[in-house]
């Protein structure tokens, strides 16, 4: 075995946490690098194991040889040492060979592994990354109405059967429950502690004991007002550990509160009973909702699940697919673009095959080294800041960096007919675990007069959004006000106006990026501004134009 000090260093390295906020969980694209880092570490660890095994094999052979020799020698010590060669070899062994063996045993075989680990650990995720990934799983659970068993086994909708997935262990479920508990999220604490308990009851071996799980479970259920269930779990805990101090205290308290509750229920009249039942139903419906839950959130989640508003046949009949040459633009007369109506009001148009695979890969290649946590405009300060409701990383690409970027910008101008010289740079975004962007407007509202003041190009008149990957499950762009949902399709782009021809904001364009359930979502977008469009999209007071 390696010396004790070596393992202390090894464990210190393994659990080293950088103080820097790396936000790995916000970009699947950057997380792929971690897989290669881990693969390199595993190779290094195997080399270390082989070195240790080789050393132990040498020690083992030495021990076996001496075991046979000493067994023979001690049968007749004087006779054995009476032979001068045996006497010489004994002196040599004790003076030289045992010293060499000592050096071999003390030789540290972990230097290469520890050195590699020390170099790589600066790129390790930290506590914030682990917590962010855990909360992302819970967000996916709520948005797509998944039960803990489905998540634990990895059998998610859209999962590629060719992709290897290791099921979640009791420790994994317990860790999710603990993270929820530390956030006073007792709803998810209950769900994940119950899953951990279920897997333990199913015979799975774990370093987490059942008493600890039951302790968390009973308290989280109590915090949600379910006294009887909390009491049942407490009794089950005490059967396993009758001396558990907190559980014994909780048992008395829960029994007292339950008796008190039943007494009140027995004395109350019909109206009070109806009121209490109504409050119970309302509490049950709200269970699991965050404190800041708004009606829009419910609509947003429904749209993400594909439960959007269905157009009437009459409205649907006005939606078309067509070949567009953008008013006989020279580039598109012989090779028109494929245009599809996604929605009528606001008018959302999808353009198919606007980016080739090689262009997409080039854009990703340029963006990946520069991906940083995506920011939003703070209406209070007017500055950019990160937000929990936008989980992705983004990078900005300028036209002069690469001919491909310049070509994409020109293509956007040719297809839309709008001037992109005053537009913002091409933004590339990659979504992380459960990556999303909750409902928002792209344009600056009247209560945000300084939103784009520093650009000097007016408000965002239109949005051009390119899907650079297919997403097996989740990841739709949804418009919460009108009930529209647009699903990612690699190489296509969607376009809509954020402002009416009058310059007023179109509030029906409020939209969101749904959490990515399975897959890796890459998008790029171009926010086109008002300046430069004066003769391309003329102003009018008629908002229906």
Strand order of the largest sheet: 1-2-3-14-10-17-8-7-4
- Class per helix and strand makeup: alpha+beta
Mean pLDDT: 86
- Count structural domains: 3
The name of the CATH topology of the largest domain is Jelly Rolls
CATH class of the largest domain: Mainly Beta
Tell me what the CATH architecture of the largest domain is: Sandwich
Q: Biggest sheet, in brief?
A: 9 strands, antiparallel
Query: Count of helical segments?
Result: 17
Give the N-terminus to C-terminus distance in angstroms. Answer: 79 Å
Strand content: 5-15%
Function: Catalyzes the post-translational formation of 4-hydroxyproline in -Xaa-Pro-Gly- sequences in collagens and other proteins.
Cofactor: L-ascorbate
Main location: endoplasmic reticulum
GO molecular function, one term: iron ion binding
